[in-house]
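Lab notebook, bench 4. The sequencing result for the construct came back, and we need a structural model before the next group meeting so we can plan mutations. Quick request posted to the team channel:

Model the 3D structure of this chain.
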Amino acid sequence: MTHDSLQTASFAVPRHTPGDGHGARWNKVPEITAYFWAIKILCTTVGETAADLLAEKAGLGLTGVSVLMSGLLALVLVVQFRTRAYRPAVYWLAVALISIVGTLISDNLTDNMGVPLELSTAVFAVILVAVFLIWYGREKTLSIHSIDTTGREAFYWLAVLFTFALGTAAGDLVAEGMALGYLTSILVFAAVIAAVAVAHFALGLDAVWSFWIAYILTRPLGASVGDYLSQPTGDGGMGLGTVVTSALFLTVIVGLVVYLSLTRKDTTAPRTSA
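Done. Here's the predicted structure in token form:
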């Protein structure tokens, strides 16, 4: 794998031009810019607070929310796969829903089935590694700059799902096992992400792995932010509640997605294969 320079305040991954087929191919995912990381973290936070909101305040329960959100995610992914190119609204809706579903997968194992967080974290890590190995074995790249076939897109979304599930389990394991509190957890995960950036810039850590490690770590970071803002002050939060926190972050997400849809700042031109 090759190394690309990283864009400002973002991890970039190597570009790869498909060598088979003819005609232009559009990448189905956005460029990795500061906008990407901002919306991703916001979606992660919404995934945490929205799952809690629907399960507790809406009275759907964990199982009901899981069924509802999985159905919605399936519908949105059908639309995403049918699009010819990256469409910000469809793509980020899929990310927001997959954030919720990934959170619910971990929560169901822990709360409904009694699976220890240590075990679920290990299992999700093994599954994610297997997805990456099979993906690379078939496509010879894990670059998200070449998500331009149905097969690659399927691997991409499968990897994204398990990064959210793994991030949820690992984040809960750290927060509960170490009893750090929400604010301290935010600082810890932010510091680890910063360390990954330093490892890439200063030590030459592979850009692809830098991206995916950071992608996993933004899940517990965003969840910690969501918990810190929404949970009662007596529990170490700011007491905004899940409704206010979810609405606030959704508003910012919508604003950024509309901006990117109009400016196309995170859209690349199609590549022509030989």
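Strands lie at 23-25, 271-273.
Will bring this to the meeting.
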